[in-house]
Amino acid sequence: MLTGLEIYKLLPKTNCKKCGFPTCLAFAMSLAAKKVLLTQCPDISEHTKQILLQATEPPIRTINVGKYKIGGETVLFRHEKTFYNPSLLGVLLKDTFSKEEIINRLKKFKELSFERVGNKYRTEMICVVSVKEDLIILEHIFNSINEIVKDNTDNNEIVVSFLSHDIDIVENFIKRYKLNLIGSANTNNYKSFVTIANNYKVGLIVEGKDLDEISCLTTQITGLGFRDLVIKVSSDKETKILEDLTQIRRLALKKNFSPFGYPTILICDDNDTTSNLSKSIIGILKYASIVVINSADTELHFPLITLRLNIYTDPQKPVSIEPKLYKIGGEPGSDAPLMVTTNFSLTYYSVEPEIINSKIPSWLLVIDADGLSVLTAWAAEKFNAEKIVDWIKKESVEQKVKHKTLIIPGYVAIINSKLNNLLPDWKIVIGPKEASGIPKFLKSMWKK
Ligand code: SF4
After folding, report:
1. How many Å lie between the centroid of ligand 1 and the Cα of residue 363?
2. How many Cβ atoms are within 10 Å of 184's Cβ, its own excluded?
3. What is the whole-number distance in angstroms between the Cα of residue 42 and the centre of ligand 1?
4. Same fold, 4-56 and 325-446
5. Is ligand 1 within 6 A of the CB of residue 39?
């Protein structure tokens, strides 16, 4: 890794400010701290770019698994900056399962898709593990997966990984089925695995009896010129999983120990729900890039998807929705109620269902308040009378709503007089403080 001063020596040193920084030195310091991207400086020569890209590459490699990216993380704790690439969640299928168990598990896997605050999320991966090299069962598994992948109309792609120690079996299936990740390469078979992974352009899972062996293995494989590696972590004990995942991340980030600069896969192969759940929680919280679970139960996957959403949300960026004039609860006419709020998504998704509950189709003007909630935005002067007036104009509200009555959140009743001054021919009505008060308010106050 280069220091800020070393990076500065390679920059054009014109202080042109095109990168948004006052000087090249300031940009170099931020680049060294991995707070900005090299592409922000448009004047770096191609040659220098290559040197800097290699030197400033994240210490953990980013790998593509289908359309998803894994790895590429730059911090140990999300509050230091953010975590970038959410852990993929997978369901385990083994060739020790009966045909009936396989069908049942895949049927459940298909249902592992959830909608939350307007977005769809799902468990993305099916991880096939060959324990006894049963070709008939494996054929049945991949055939059934093929059908699911073909029928998948979801935007969220389904990806498939296959682990076997028999290189011939892996080659047999990768020739005929779409696989995104293969393994497990160990000290005995890694050369053949690298050849196949190279030929089919897929990532390679590596495993060893301990972290020392894994570090030797990744070093040997990178010596062959192959770097799309994923380190496999598994143990019967939660503490050991936590220890290994933490050591891999810590050594990669803090010591720039390149043999551990790769994403990780945690396979939770337990038969009881509690162990599966506790291990997968550790995996999501503590650095596993892929978490595979020996279950496809909704009650296990749904909380894990929610946990993943929490961990992989940028803590410095409030979750926001598009600011605009929304129609809620049907087709509001020009005499329908008009309410205003901020674009903090939690606020929107608290207000929206309450308007629907009222059964009175309404207009909801959502203004850009940098994704802050009503009171916070008001305190930061991002939700005030002037802004509301701007958004009324921007969204041509007067062409859609004829009554010129605006309901404002009860918490910002204080902006009432200013709004009256700025909108003299409008009537400003103070609405409820909490979203839960909206149905009662609309049914009683609005009708009056
Ligand atoms: S854009 Fe490049 S040359 Fe210009 S100030 Fe930034 S780092 Fe320096």
Report:
1. 46
2. 22
3. 7
4. no
5. no
Distance from residue 38's CA to the centre of ligand 1 (Å): 10
The CATH T-level fold of domain 325-446 is: Rossmann fold (3.40.50)
Per-domain boundaries in the chain: 4-56, 62-311, 325-446
User: Does residue 196 contact residue 167 with C-beta atoms inside 8 Å?
Assistant: yes
Q: CB count, 10 Å around CB of 296?
A: 22
pLDDT digits (tens, 9 = 90+) for 113-161: 988 766 889 999 999 999 999 999 999 999 999 999 988 887 789 999 9
The CATH classification number of 4-56 equals 1.10.15.40
Q: Which of residues 3 and 367 earns the better pLDDT score?
A: 367
Q: For ligand 1, what atom is nearest to the CA of residue 44? A: 2
Q: Rounded to an integer, what distance in angstroms lies between the CA atom of residue 125 and that of residue 265?
A: 12
Which tops the pLDDT comparison, 1 or 398? 398
Q: Whose CA is nearest to atom 2 of ligand 1?
A: 41
Q: Is the pLDDT of residue 54 over 90?
A: no
- Ligand 1 pocket, mutate which of 5, 8, 9, 16 (most atoms under 8 A from CB): 16
Going by CA atoms, what residue is nearest to atom 4 of ligand 1?
A: 16
pLDDT band at 188 (very low <50, low <70, confident <90, very high): very high
Which whole number is the average pLDDT over 179-184? 96
Query: Does the CB atom of residue 14 touch ligand 1 within 6 A?
Result: yes
CB of 159 sitting under 6 A from ligand 1: no
Looking at CATH, the fold of the domain delimited by 62-311 is given as: TIM Barrel (3.20.20)
Quickly count: other Cβ atoms within 10 Å of residue 77's Cβ.
8
In eight-state DSSP terms, residue 445 is: I
| CB of 27 sitting under 6 A from ligand 1 | yes
The residues with which 447 forms a beta bridge, in sequence order, are: none
Report whether 318 contacts 295 (CB < 8 A).
no
Cα end-to-end span (Å), the chain:
68
